[in-house]
Amino acid sequence: MSSYPDVRLRRFRRNASLRGLVRETHLRLDQFVMPLFVAPESLRNEQLPGMSRYTVEAVVREVEELVRAGVQAVILFGIPAEKDEQATGAWEDDGIVQQALRALRPRFPELVLMTDVCLCEYTSHGHCGVIVDGEVHNDRSLELLARTAVSHVEAGADVVAPSDMMDGRVRAIRDALDDVGSESVPVLAYSAKYASAFYGPFREAADSTPSFGDRRGYQMDPANVREALRECELDIEEGADAIMIKPALPYLDVIRAARESFDVPIGAYNVSGEYAMVKAAAQAGWLEERQAALESLTAIKRAGADLIISYWTKDLAQWL
Predict the structure, then answer these.
(1) Is the residue at 290 inside a domain?
(2) Catalytic entry in 246, 279, 301, 314
């Protein structure tokens, strides 16, 4: 009995109940993270609601809705009132993310509060590190990234997620957290973050487009996968508790390769461009958003991701 007509794989596809019994990959809301943008002024995006900006007061109301719907984790991105070359708003005590954390932490004690640790939203030039002689200086950026992570944790963050792609930043952050007694706070490293065309809507929402050049000098070449595994391995050796691949859908092979190579939790960022493409196609009547989104998220999970950052997380709370 090795082929048709004895073997009929359609037998378990006849109805939803039978399909559910043998489903190999499942989406669970407790493994999804909702990105939120916090800024001095709100800015609603009706076309891409996941790209809206919230004031501190408004983000509290939004999180109330998310928690009520069953969402268990969010990641905060900040857009400061003013920017400078040293990214002061990223690490100062009254920065926009720090304010949001202090507002959210006592009100939602069970919610996982993650923060993006990067400088691009806070620098006047839009790059992810300090500029020296026209280039992003790796080592001079590490101290500011570490200060940012510490300030987030002191304000109430449960997890810090460095996304800058500077060499050595995981070790710098881990050491800084340990030095202030925060050795129990996990680091979720954006270990394989590619120089991707799929970040466009995010950069508009976060006001983080570089004012000159691009980020190919520190983000990864989309053609490379072996290098991605080296990045992951180095971050784990430096103290990363979990690693992340970004973007997700164009890099499912990288997620799979990382899953087969490492035992740590693996995250994937279902980025703004992936979200926007489906939204635009659905608005044009070319596909059904819910079905396309669920299929996309299932593919990311099937590739090996344990947790997924997605702008569909709020919708997923209803769909599941």
Answers:
(1) yes
(2) 246
Determine which helix (DSSP H) or strand (DSSP E) holds 161, and give its type and residue range: strand 159-162
Catalytic residue among 83, 193, 279, 301: 193
pLDDT in tens, 259-305: 999 999 999 999 999 999 999 999 999 999 999 999 999 999 999 99
pLDDT digits (tens, 9 = 90+) for 74-92: 999 999 999 998 899 999 9
Q: What is the pLDDT of residues 138-171, one digit of tens each?
A: 999 999 999 999 999 999 999 999 999 999 999 9
Give the domain CATH number at 178. Answer: 3.20.20.70
* Average pLDDT value for residue range 6-16: 94
Residue 15 lies in a domain: no
Fill in the DSSP letter of residue 168: T
Please state whether the predicted TM-score (pTM) of the whole model is above 0.85.
yes
83 is catalytic: no
What's 249-309 look like in SS3? HHHHHHHHHHHHHCCCCEEEEECHHHHHHHHHHHHCCCCCHHHHHHHHHHHHHHHCCCEEE
In the chain, the amino acid numbered 83 is: K
DSSP-derived 3-state class of residue 12:
helix
Ordered alpha helix ranges (H), 180-271: 200-206, 226-238, 252-261
On whether the CB atoms of residues 210 and 127 are closer than 8 A, the answer is yes
d(C-alpha 276, C-alpha 273), whole Å: 5
279 catalytic residue (yes or no) = no
Range of the domain at 71: 27-319
